[in-house]
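Collaborator request, handled under Task 6.
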Amino acid sequence: MTPQAALIELLGRVGARNGAATMVSTEELNQWPAAAVTALKTQNLLLTARPAKSVVCPGCEQECSMPVHTVPRANAPAASFVVCDKRSDINRVAVPAARLAQWRCDAQAVCGFVAASLCLQQTTMQATEAGLLPIGIARGNKRTQMLCLRVQGHLALVVGADAMPLADVIGFENGGFTLDHAVIRQLVDAATTADPRHTPSTAKREARKIDTQAIYAAWQKAYRALQKKHPDKSDVWH
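Structure tokens returned to the collaborator:
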């Protein structure tokens, strides 16, 4: 499995659940490329989840799926175990905490990844259509439009009335996952805005807000630089 294939597998699971969280065990991650796992965690595509409530019992070769019992201890980490009810010669079977560790990915994590990869200011707009999540204002070479994520079935990037499978623009370079910026810019430029469901009427307002935030950020950066250069000056002077 390549790192790119690992991410496509993860995105496929999220799509199959219509954007709801999908869980991945540490045991399964150990079978994925180490570089992919590191990138998935670093880029917040995999977030820590609650420990598993059931596990395949390691007590014998039958590999039964059993509920996990966890008992807190005063001066030591909590102890987890399963209780075998299939054989008379096995009772409690200890389960290491590492085996219960889980990671999760959902549509919101994917939206965050897309926004970060494209250097977009992630929007605070709410979804106006089931299965379609606004991500942020994307810029093409000719225009700017709202970029959305469709989460029904296969995950897809949506601009206007046009869509593109997210898996088609994924890459892996220098230890991290990337998106093909050029292809997405083409999508932004080529997409029609005739369908209001995919291009909210507040797109221009969102774009202006992003530009204003960029100006404020530049002012704040300049202010901090002056403070370091002239620490004895007042705020009014700065």
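The cover message to the collaborator said: "The radius of gyration is 24 Å. Residues 194-201 have pLDDT under 50 and may be disordered. Please let us know whether this matches your experimental observations."
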